[in-house]
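not sure who needs this but someone in the group chat was asking about VOC family protein from Lentibacillus salinarum so here u go. i didnt clean anything up, its just raw.
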Amino acid sequence: MEKQFFKKPAIYVGEVNINVTDLEKSLSFYRHIIGFSVLEQTDQKAVLTADGKTPLLTLEQPADVLPKAERTTGLFHFAILLPSRADLSSFLNHVAEAGARLGGSDHLVSEALYLNDPDGNGIEVYRDRPSQEWNWSAGQVAMSTDPLDVDSLLGESENKWDGLPEETVMGHIHLHVANLQSTETFYVDGLGFQIVTNYPGALFASTANYHHHIGLNIWNGENAPAPADNSAGLNWYSLVFPDEQSREEKIKKLESLGVNVKKENDTYIVKDPSENEIHMLLPE
């Protein structure tokens, strides 16, 4: 894992906050299958970490929670980036032994495993190939969805899975959106991302020449509605900006596009055109 994609001057995903219908059941899954540790916990909420200090995923159970809605905007998947191929190999051995249902793909830039949590929230666990192996042309990076070489990956490591390594980060988030054109305007003109891959019905956006920090698709249908606030799925995700000046510039850009930016304590909160909520943060 190359850290330059998750520090200044990059803008990157820091934390994802989701609703679940049964906190204890979800917590068991995220601890024992995915390998998170608990940073904080109450009756309705659990903050999860890989390094014992940095929140990566927060689970919340609203009092009147609804099951995850179909064919809406919101979370397609969040993606947990492991430091090495050996780590991904250990994880694959672990989830296979646990009997979890999963899929896999080779994206050229990365190797990825896919599974769902108990509520159907999508999760990707992946490792990046070295960035010098990525193929760029005219500002676009070559990505594909090829079969994963499972046998090669399984043979990569003899280490037993011992939970998420400390260096694990939230690599990217992939969202269902209602309209690609307004979405592109928001993320590119407003937040300063670059579109680095165009895919049928989807855009992939990044900063600092990463293959993507954000995926955006209309695969749930053009003009798909936003889910109810209390349904299982995405509550919000955070984008971490390099510094105060960078964040202020992006806030002014968004406001010039007619986007409402709210301030709560030290956090600026904004919603994209599909009602996906973003918390605009600074590095800790």
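also The mean pLDDT is 97. if thats useful
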